[in-house]
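To close the chapter, one final illustration. This time we ask the reader to focus less on the individual chains and more on the assembly as a whole: which components sit near each other, and how the overall shape emerges from the parts.
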Amino acid sequence: MEHRLDVSELEPCEPLERTLAAITLLETGDYLRVLHRREPHLLYPLLEKGGFVWSTRVGRTGQFEILIWRQDDQSAESAALGS
Amino acid sequence: MLNTTSLSLDQAPPISIPFRFFLTAPLFAIAAGLQLLMFGGELFVSRWLPLTLGLTHLMTLGVLGMVMCGAMLQMLPVIAGSPVPRVVLVGTLTHVLLLLGTVLLETALVTGSAPATLAAVISLGVGFAVFIAATGVALWRTAAPSTTINGMKLAVIALAATVLMGIAAALGYSGAGRIEQLALLTDFHLGWGVLGWIGLLILSVSFQLVPMFQVTPEYPLWIRRYLPNSLFIGIVVWLLFQLGFIQSEWVDLSATLVLGLVVSGYLLFSLNTLRLQYQRKRRVPDVTLLFWRLGMAMLGCCALLWVSGKLFPPIGNSRYFSILLGIGLLQGVALSIVNGMLYKIVPFLCWFHLQNRQLALMCMTVRMPHMKEFVSDKSAQRQFHLHLTGLVFAAVAAVIPNWFSRPAAALFIVSNSMLLFNLLVAVRKYRSTLKLLLPTMPGTVSGSSTTA
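The assembled structure is written out below.
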């Protein structure tokens, strides 16, 4: 199941704070779609340390979409990448 | 789809590296205030007085230089994706030598001691050489240099030029070396320091930090791409005109015109920053924004003052012109921006290093303070009002020094003591939260800094 989080109008470090809070709620099969106005380079190492995997896309308007799921969660991974 | 690689946190310096620079800066500001309090209006007589030069260098080296060097060491791995080699050694050496060199230079200027000048020159020369070499390596090996990196490269070149000219001027003044046209060399040193190093660094870092921290639209691409290069070319051409290879009155006029274009470039930057801040999407009160707006407004005022001084000789030749311009640029523009940024950078680093540690340990039972909890908004706003009042008093003191210089000094001391207090509160909160996380780590020593 997809969870959606729009942090594009928040100032640092609210996007990081809200994303890190949201990923703790992910259950098996769930992934999080984060909408961000910039590429969140500092989020990635934190995700890595927390045991999460991500994939980043650039939308048509230049907005970034970061798809995040738990490591080893195959169903979440295929749902996220197929979305 | 992007397969973005993760930024390695091991590349960034331990939090103690930027913090030692940030916490030293207000101490030098307090020292500068004490000097003004002690000597009063005497310091506003002329910018050439040794005591005034000492005060200026406490501000440029001890306050602005400290924060700018510390911030660059911290930001380069994040902005450039390129770590500063041996960052702990480089940070420690730069900090110690800059601190020692500033104290020695102040001593040399107050006492007129030639050995102190020589020691200051060596200390500052080696300190900056280490910093320039290390940040230069990080900047020039960036795989995909952005407009911010390009501007930072030019700022570092300008810093190298400023340091070399400063060393030559110091040796000339102390009598250790024979320098012709010492006054002109000092003007070059000042011009390259303010319009090159300080100006270009603030400008290029703004391209990254203003849209990011203040949630504004991006600066126009043409400004990001062409303005830093144009300003740098401008100060090079100004230097070449002034070197006197060609003797003609047209050369002097051309040099002034080129400098006028450089000043216009900074005015363009200031107006654009104010425009972007006006267009920001989320209009929540923010103390950093107040400092930035003050800095940008002061940049406009300084540009107008400089133009007025050039167009109307009675203003340009007046006793207070250069002192007022110096106060406006250092205290009004640079210190306002640096002070404002400290209120963003310090809480952000505290929060980020703690978050990184928490996730590494998966110790989710400890509540992580929000970024806004590290520095109280009220206290930071009070400090802003003190800074603003101090600036107004300092500007008036440039014109009426005997009445206003000591109140201006007192306000400056109180403002910077409050800044130091606010930063120390953030550090204390960081340490207390870190302590809660540390007991879960086997074999760790309480109070050790994190490497993130």
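Chain A touches chain B through 27 residues (CB under 8 Å). The mean pLDDT of chain A is 90. With these observations in hand, you are ready for the problems at the end of the chapter.
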